[in-house]
């Protein structure tokens, strides 16, 4: 029914829809399939935009410790054996990277989805 797709730096839902479906107007299908409704907040920032975001949000605290994690990326106390410090910068970078993988509905199903959507109106 769907495949996974990793968003390339700077791609928008319109770019992806054009690339995958041949029509940028199908961007809403990508957003709906992934339950991503905030065009800016739910998709990864470019490297430059992420650096600006980190600077604006954290200022001179960008490299301060945000939290600690164990080897499985679970948040743990600082005194936990093998706890690894995660800085504010790394936290924001990881959060941004987690937005890269999305689901792409099979191109064969697009006409059915559009028809079902029209039927609901």
Write the layout of secondary structure elements.
Elements: E1 2-6, H1 13-21, H2 27-33, H3 47-58, E2 65-69, E3 75-76, E4 84-87, H4 88-97, E5 101-105, H5 110-120
Antiparallel strand pairs: 1-5, 2-3, 2-4
For this entry, give a set of tags.
121 residues; alpha+beta; three-stranded antiparallel β-sheet; two-stranded antiparallel sheet; 5 helices; 40% helix; elongated
Protein architecture, described:
The structure is a single chain. By secondary structure, the chain is of the alpha+beta class. It is built from 5 helices and 5 strands; from the N terminus they run βαααβββαβα. The chain has helices spanning 13-21, 27-33, 47-58, 88-97, 110-120; strands spanning 2-6, 65-69, 75-76, 84-87, 101-105. β2 (65-69) and β3 form a beta hairpin. α1 packs across α2 (27-33). It is elongated, with a radius of gyration of 19 Å.
């Amino acid at each position: 029914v769907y495949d996974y797709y990793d968003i390339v730096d700077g791609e928008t839902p319109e770019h992806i829809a054009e690339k995958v479906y041949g029509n940028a107007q199908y961007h809403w299908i990508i957003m709906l399939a992934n339950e991503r409704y905030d065009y800016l907040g739910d998709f990864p920032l470019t490297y430059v935009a992420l650096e600006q975001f980190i600077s604006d949000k954290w200022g001179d605290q960008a490299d301060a410790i945000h939290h600690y994690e164990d080897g499985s990326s679970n948040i743990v106390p600082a005194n936990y054996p093998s706890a690894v410090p995660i800085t504010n910068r790394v936290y924001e970078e990881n959060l941004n990277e987690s937005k890269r993988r999305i689901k792409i509905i099979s191109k064969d199903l697009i006409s059915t989805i559009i028809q079902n959507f029209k039927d609901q109106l």
